[in-house]
């Protein structure tokens, strides 16, 4: 059962059996963060351990993990550590033992390595992690086995009573634990900000459906009902190739000139007769099939034969679909292919939501001002371009000076018509930022206020009482673009009731050097030529130079370990 311990540097005890009182008794180690159970995150962090013991109720865990339970259950963490340590067997005093709780959503193997190194350097009985408030985490540590054995003798139920005075401590960034429902929600937001935005956007009411012609104006909308064929496709038997329409077995005699697409065809009345036919032409009455040129031999002036048996290059009426067939499900994005399908199926009007109409405002007294303290508006252009890429129709709204009245007007009932109001700037809580007060005056409901992303985390999503949505974007141009790329697709999908699509992940070279230790970082990306991507550093979020010519925008996970998420 155990994996070889020869090369491993340490063994591990993971506590996974507490009562989780502050989580209303939920099975905390089984809680999902970023799609993984907390227990699996802990196990991944000790993937290099020799023996791994999990103390807690029996769970579905990999075979190499030994599962034990303290006796009696819930006797306290020290008893649980004792039970786990006993299950490791008779360890030499100098063996290292990691002791961890299964409630650390951002714990990684590198943290355990760092603790083990630190304990070695300090020659300490144990090295514990320090949290952001510089408090030692008793359940994130690497022990010397002999010291843990000694500490467990005569300890009471608390972990604290185990800790020797000479314990070493090491600050580990971003190692928050999960105790409360708020902690869990925070961790989930941090684990996947796009999922957090998607969850917030789910509170928006979908738009009312409308009937629209399947033309260019409707691209980017989403089917509110399945697309049902009015006409079969093809609508008539038609030639799929340039060749000959023939009747009866070979040889055939040519009896007329070519049948052209879009024109009526003369009938083939006699067996052994043929007509040249163009791709897309109606199969002549009396013709049985079409044979492409390549497979026909012309003998003399007007006699044909073919050595290919059974060839038929006719597309028969209704081969693709019959009238009344459902062709595409509700929730499908109306792209050019979907609109083309509607046209081919003779559907004059399709019932859709969207395309989403956004009203885009810039804000701030300095923006566009013709004075020494003014600054050019550089944010609205990249945001508009990104919105177009997301299939959103953009109407520029009036520029909003830093006044409460202007902000109220942008959100009030007489605002520029649109489904979503997007405001660049004023998401901060500065003296001139009136967005939150104006939202509250308009009866708006804030659904999301900030995500752990940089730049662009200063992001606000709200719902107005009449069903309109409001997106506030950080004013720095790179933040505005990133915020739009993060927030608008989920808002669009909620408002137009689009079918969910799997997230697009990327492998980005150099991510660890570019990444933030705790936050997700948005970076421009370029193809590396071998199927992956390279990230670019952003010099300043106040200007866009480092994005010029880049081929996309990706969100790197905290520390850069793991897949990046494509935003653009
Ligand atoms: N005390 C703090 N101050 C700020 C923080 C913070 O965390 N604590 N975050 C900074 C970051 S990062 C951003 S982004 C902004 C977000 O605040 P706002 O959304 O209120 O943005 P503004 O203050 O209106 O503008 C920020 C910056 O961007 C310039 N700007 C605004 N609009 C445009 C435009 N259309 N084109 C070009 N540049 C624009 C504006 O002049 C400001 O320099 O808050 C920071 N402060
Ligand atoms: O949202 Mo601010 O950059 O992080 O520019």
UniProtKB/TrEMBL annotation:
GO terms for biological process: Mo-molybdopterin cofactor biosynthetic process. Residues 359-494 form the MoaB/Mog domain. Its cofactor is Mg(2+). It is an enzyme of class 2 (transferase). Pathway: Cofactor biosynthesis; molybdopterin biosynthesis. One of its GO terms (cellular component) is cytosol. It catalyses: adenylyl-molybdopterin + molybdate = Mo-molybdopterin + AMP + H(+). Its EC number is 2.10.1.1. Keywords: Magnesium, Metal-binding, Molybdenum, Molybdenum cofactor biosynthesis, Transferase. Pfam families: MoCF_biosynth, MoeA_N, NTP_transf_3. One of its GO terms (molecular function) is molybdopterin molybdotransferase activity. Catalyzes the insertion of molybdate into adenylated molybdopterin with the concomitant release of AMP. PANTHER family: GEPHYRIN, MOLYBDOPTERIN BIOSYNTHESIS PROTEIN. Belongs to the MoeA family. This is Molybdopterin molybdenumtransferase. It comes from Gordonia crocea.
């Amino acid at each position: 059962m155990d994996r070889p311990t020869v090369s491993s540097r340490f063994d591990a005890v993971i506590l996974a059996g507490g009562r989780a009182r502050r989580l209303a008794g939920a099975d905390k180690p089984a809680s999902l963060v970023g799609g993984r159970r907390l227990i699996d995150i802990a196990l991944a962090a000790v993937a290099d351990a020799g023996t791994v013991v999990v103390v807690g109720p029996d769970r579905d865990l990999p075979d190499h993990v030994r599962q034990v339970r303290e006796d009696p259950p819930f006797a306290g963490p020290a008893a649980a550590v004792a039970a786990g340590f006993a299950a490791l067997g008779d360890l030499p005093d100098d063996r290292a033992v990691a002791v961890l709780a299964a409630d650390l959503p951002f714990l990684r193997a590198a943290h355990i390595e760092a603790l083990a190194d630190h304990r070695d350097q300090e020659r300490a009985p144990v090295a514990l992690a320090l949290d952001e408030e510089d408090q030692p985490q008793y359940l994130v540590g690497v022990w010397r086995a002999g010291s843990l054995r000694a500490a467990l003798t005569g300890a009471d139920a608390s972990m604290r009573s185990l800790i020797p005075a000479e314990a070493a401590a090491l600050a580990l960034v971003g190692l928050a634990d999960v105790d409360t429902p708020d902690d869990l929600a925070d961790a989930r937001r941090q684990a996947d900000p796009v999922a957090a935005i998607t969850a917030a956007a789910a509170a928006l009411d979908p738009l009312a459906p409308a009937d629209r012609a399947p033309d260019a104006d409707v691209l980017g909308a989403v089917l509110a009902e399945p697309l049902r064929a009015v006409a079969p496709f093809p609508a008539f038997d038609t030639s799929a190739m340039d060749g000959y329409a023939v009747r009866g077995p070979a040889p055939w005699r040519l009896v007329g000139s070519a049948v052209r697409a879009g024109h009526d065809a003369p009938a083939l009345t006699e067996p052994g007769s043929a007509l040249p036919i163009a791709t897309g032409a109606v199969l002549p009455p009396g013709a049985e099939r079409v044979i492409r040129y390549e497979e026909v031999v012309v003998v003399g002036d007007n006699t044909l034969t073919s050595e290919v048996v059974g060839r038929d290059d006719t597309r028969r009426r209704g081969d693709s679909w019959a009238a009344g067939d459902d062709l595409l499900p509700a929730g499908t994005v109306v792209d050019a292919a979907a609109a083309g399908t509607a046209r081919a199926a003779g559907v004059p009007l399709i019932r859709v939501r969207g395309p989403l109409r956004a009203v885009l405002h810039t804000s701030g007294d300095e923006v566009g001002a013709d004075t020494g303290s003014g600054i050019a508006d550089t944010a609205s252009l990249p945001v508009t371009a990104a919105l177009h890429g997301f299939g959103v129709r953009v109407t520029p709204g009036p520029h909003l000076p830093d006044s409460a009245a202007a902000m109220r007007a942008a959100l009030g009932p007489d605002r520029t018509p649109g489904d979503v109001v997007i405001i660049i700037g004023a998401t901060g809580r500065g003296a001139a930022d009136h967005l939150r007060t104006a939202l509250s005056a308009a009866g708006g409901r804030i659904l999301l206020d900030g995500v752990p992303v940089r730049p662009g985390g200063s992001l606000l999503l709200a719902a107005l009482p009449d069903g309109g949505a409001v997106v506030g974007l950080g004013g720095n141009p790179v933040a505005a673009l990133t915020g739009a790329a993060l927030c608008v697709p989920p808002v669009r999908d909620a408002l137009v009731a689009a079918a969910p699509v799997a997230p697009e992940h990327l492998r980005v070279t150099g991510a660890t050097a570019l990444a933030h230790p705790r936050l997700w970082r948005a970076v421009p990306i370029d193809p590396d030529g071998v199927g992956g991507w390279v990230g670019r550093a952003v010099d300043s979020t106040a200007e866009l130079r480092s994005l010029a010519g880049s081929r996309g925008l990706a969100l790197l996970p905290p520390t850069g370990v793991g897949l990046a998420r494509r935003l653009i």
